[in-house]
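Hi again,

Forgot to attach this to my earlier email, sorry! This is the prediction with SN-glycerol-3-phosphate bound. I've pasted everything inline since the attachment limit keeps bouncing my files.
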Amino acid sequence: MKIFIDTADLDEIREIASWGIIDGVTTNPTLVAKSGRSFNEILEEIFKIVDGPISLEVISEKADDMVKEAKELISKVSEKYRKNIAIKIPMTSEGLKAVKNLSKEGIRTNVTLIFSANQALLAAKAGAAFVSPFIGRLDDIGQEGMQIVEEIVEIFCNYDIETEVIVASVRHPIHVIDAAKIGANIATLPPGVIRKMVKHSLTDIGIKQFLNDWKKVKK
Ligand code: G3P
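Structure tokens for the complex follow:
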């Protein structure tokens, strides 16, 4: 399973990418706002750090405006990095229209705010390169988020659909294990979840013990 980092925090992206585990980045307007920097400032930097799909979200609501905005976003990124851009489009009928038009022009899209397998199927039909089911937000309202990931992966397998499934709105490491067991292509993870995946108390105890015992070795 590929791991994307779900943040617009450049320091976190830089640090965690240096561990050699990051295959791509997803951002959204909320994450950009949290970073405290302007979108333009962040843009080029992210592409310099990670050589993999980078999702940038449009905020327009009409298909034509989304397409226009997507092209403006692309024009802000240096030509050498453009192959890595994925335009994040919200799952609406206008969004589907935009996905169809962008994919015709060879522009990859990531359809976001997916909360059902039907939405994912439609996004794939329209030509999305990625679909992003938001599992944590479903869990938050008492629905089993991971169930829709299972359904989407099964449906895409049944029909050899090439659209990749990005498990998004991940809240904890168990979500990651479940996504990998189901066979999702990608999980996009907040830095905090990735840090939790690294840690185990027995690893820390083990290191401490080895270091103490090493002091006892005759020099
Ligand atoms: O990429 C967006 C998605 O992961 C949002 O997560 O935590 O705001 O539900 P969250």
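Residues 2-218 form a domain with the TIM Barrel fold (CATH 3.20.20.70). Residues 56 and 87 are 5 Å apart (CA to CA).

That should be everything now.

G.
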